[in-house]
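ok trying this again, last paste got cut off
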Amino acid sequence: MASTDKNIFEKFSNWATKFTGSSAAFIGSALIVVIWAASGPVFKYSETWQLVINTGTTIITFLMVFLIQKAQNKDSKAIQIKLNELIAAHEKASNRIVDIEDLTEKELDQLHKYYEKLADFAEEDEDIHASHSIDAAQRNQDHKDEMFRRRHDEWLQEQNRQHR
């Protein structure tokens, strides 16, 4: 992407993210705190002297929360795109996993439990190269679902016969 496509906020946030994570920013911040602490006797440790550091750090913290969140969102999106590319490029990987970040927390928990179960199956295998795909699990689930529906339909028919 050309840098001319970036707006002013994007440029500033990229610069601020890099700067605030640098050694220079930490040293500068530490120096400010040391100067503030050393100036205590000059200002007789007054309420105004305390208010200066409290207000300054509160404002900086408030703004940094949004800056950090923006950087995190951008990094997360880039990582998701890279992972999606890896999934799409691997012929045995399930494409159902692409864009799962839009699922609910409950749905993600269900997938997590599924993969924990796959890990358990893999540990039980003597062949470390054997794999358990989500597609095979889906076929198993479809089979179970079909059997359940068939049994349920039979049960419903039996109930209807009994009520006639």
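PB: full thing came through this time. The two ends are 71 Å apart (CA to CA).
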